[in-house]
Amino acid sequence: MLGPVILAASRSDKMRRFISAAPGTKQVVDRFIAGETVDQVVPIVKDAAGKGLEVTLDVVGEDITTVEQSYAARDAYLQLIERLKDLDLGTRAEMSVKLSMFGQALEGGHELALANVRPVVEAAAAIGTTVTLDAEDHTTLDSMFAIHEELRKDFPQTGCVIQAYLFRTEEDARRLAAAGSRVRIVKGAYKEPASVAYQDKGEIDKAYVRILKILMDGDAYPMIGSHDPRLIAITQELARRAGRKLDEYEFQMLYGIRGDEHVRLAAEGHRMRVYTAYGTDWYGYFMRRLAEKPANLLFFARSILTKG
């Protein structure tokens, strides 16, 4: 039951300061965060391409408080796209964005986030790639889905993320599957109340499979965000039953986790995309990675205890 405690800590400024100052933090952060700058992440994209992998790039940082910060987030993605264009890596990398980082939670945030993300989506399309809108806590989802629908009018390849632990997600999946959307399905990594989300891991896994079946049987392009070997095997079986070819869905896994599995799936002919986060504001992303898997937390604790 450590997950909810860690997720609560992800919103604590006091814990942010403590963890940032801990001697072993950098060692563990470097496992999950590819770097702080575009220059540091470009070699990782090149290396992935050489292994037959693709990436989705996330500039971390979501708890903004000013309009100016939302503009800076937009510009960070535009800078990334320009670098990918210069290096002819556009077809190997897509972008993932959190609309909170683009101003969604500010006054007039829905319109602000849409105005900020649109030029990013346009620039991505111009170099042959696309953008996926990440899911955040349940209070933001109606706005996210509305922005997704608006962007798809001009850029139908724009993707979105759904979270299996939310009760609403099966209905969202049916709507998205009917619309032929690109949809990444994940279990969910925010602290959500029992009134809106499953709390039991077994129930979340069952919901994940039900939702995955909806996507596979519909017109969506499913993007399976999971490291769970059992769910990977179920995905392959559901794809086979649905008559899907290997390029009609893809697997997505996090940078720093199960790297050998990334390569194995790609070698089998699957599309395999590595979710690669970078930037200086890593705390919230890092804490959610700890919450997802106890082994990550133990690794972090050992690193702190053995440094000093």
Automatic annotation (TrEMBL):
It comes from the Bacteria. It is an enzyme of class 1 (oxidoreductase). It catalyses: L-proline + a quinone = (S)-1-pyrroline-5-carboxylate + a quinol + H(+). Gene3D superfamilies: 3.20.20.220. Its cofactor is FAD. Keywords: FAD, Flavoprotein, Nucleotide-binding, Oxidoreductase, Proline metabolism. PANTHER family: PROLINE DEHYDROGENASE 1, MITOCHONDRIAL, PROLINE OXIDASE. This is proline dehydrogenase. It comes from Streptomyces crystallinus.
